[in-house]
Design brief:
about 220 residues, alpha/beta, Rossmann fold, putative n-type atp pyrophosphatase, domain 2, 4-stranded antiparallel β-sheet, about 30% helix
Length: about 220
């Protein structure tokens, strides 16, 4: 099975990528939708340019799709990028967003390929816990929820710190897996790739929310 992985560089994309590899499928490229506007209901915005480094680590082509993020331009740009490729499907890390999943499926149907969302409706806690247990290095690159302070930015999750994150999620009532946008992630290493990425950046914090600005 020849597939591309839709990747923002974060944990969900990495888990979907690993799932495809575990099935013995040929991942022919990583595809990233880069948002030039201020917001996107479909795609992650921070640090997506770093996916190029993940692709290089895995010796894979990187397809960067630029769009304002507005509907329907976002999905049309992705569709135009995928149309010429010799693939049988698209693998993505959609976890709970019906909006994201349905739009990807509709696009895949128009292209005559399959759309796989292997994480769909998994337990958020178990999903992240299993990734940590299997050696994924998940760095928190953005926070925007009450209870998550500056100290989390640039932090790589460990079993102990994930317990702390779960405590905060229960106390402040946010999604422990960050599905509501409470935090963003980037994966430095894991069983899906050989080696480890080294990234450099500065913390940007406004007193309420923040992100790591990578070089």
């Amino acid at each position: 099975m020849r597939v591309v992985v839709l990747s923002s560089g974060g944990k969900d994309s990495a888990a979907a990528w690993w799932w495809a590899k575990c099935r013995g499928w040929e991942v022919v490229a990583l595809v990233t939708v880069s948002i030039t506007g201020q917001d996107s209901p479909m795609f992650q915005i921070p640090s997506t340019h770093l996916v190029e480094q993940q692709a290089e680590l895995a010796d894979l082509p990187w397809i960067n799709v630029s769009t304002s993020g507005e509907t329907p331009d976002d999905i049309e740009a992705l569709e135009n990028a995928l149309a010429p490729l010799d693939i049988e499907g698209l693998v993505s890390g959609a976890l709970r967003s019906d909006y994201q999943k349905s739009r990807l499926e509709q696009m895949a149907e128009r292209l005559g390929i399959n759309s796989w969302t292997p994480l769909w409706h998994q337990s958020g806690r178990e999903h992240v816990q299993q990734m940590i247990d299997h050696g994924f290095e998940i760095m928190i690159t953005g926070v925007s929820a009450e209870g998550l302070g500056k100290e989390w930015l640039g932090h790589v999750l460990t079993p102990t710190s994930f317990e702390r994150l779960e405590e905060l999620a229960n106390r402040y009532r946010f999604h422990v897996e960050g599905e509501g946008g409470e935090y963003e992630t980037f994966v430095l290493a894991g069983p899906h790739v050989e080696g480890r990425l080294e990234v450099v950046g500065e913390v940007v914090w406004d007193g309420v929310r923040g992100h790591v600005s990578f070089h």
